[in-house]
Specification:
It comes from Maribacter dokdonensis. The protein is an alpha/beta fold. Helix content is 40%, strand content 10%. It has ten helices and six strands, in the order αααβαβααββαβαβαα.
Length: 240
Amino acid sequence: MTCDNHNITFEKMNDLLNTLQNKLVPSWRHQLVDEFEKPYFKDLIQFVDNEYSEHTCYPGKNDIFAAFDYCDFNDVKVVIIGQDPYHGPNQANGLCFSVKDGVKHPPSLVNIFKELENDIGKTYPQSGNLEDWAKQGVLLLNATLTVREHEAGSHQKKGWETFTDAVIRSLSENREQLIFLLWGGFAKKKAKLINAKKHSILTSGHPSPLSANRGYWFGNGHFSASNKILNDLGNKMITW
């Protein structure tokens, strides 16, 4: 089997560990360097190495840390937390809820864009690639950064959540006045990692059809609310 959609073959675990560490931009590496030396992270890298060597996994190796590549630690304004990457071919690009250009929009992303239409009047976009959001300071963070093809949740509880919880804690502790958008029960559990006295936490149902069709997603107004908070702080608003 190929290791991922880029047909990249992983080498030794230490090579992968060094690659992933070096892939992080300096601001994030400074915040997370202690995590790399912990036993759980080395076990995680061994697991990821084996998975990509033996199965088709997503996103491509070069996109595993894309959320950090596009959004410097010091530039984060808004944090959106997803669960794990899309597991279909050519979908995942390393940003939660985002897909590559030209890829059909998954149901959750469809509902995100519908809420954008309802909330701020934005025309439904042709591309589901959310890189432009990330470049403006929206950290699109999946709790689990990799997944096996067609097996949702297959890389959960292997160590990624410990790592991404450290990301959330670091943002909470070392930044001020961020906006955390917690959509659905899984994301809402991350509120315990965030200092609500320093940051804004907005919660709603998940944009998945199951939640949205029950009335827990549409009308949350999170996009306009986030921009109002940013504007009130004197920060540049997000062009969603």
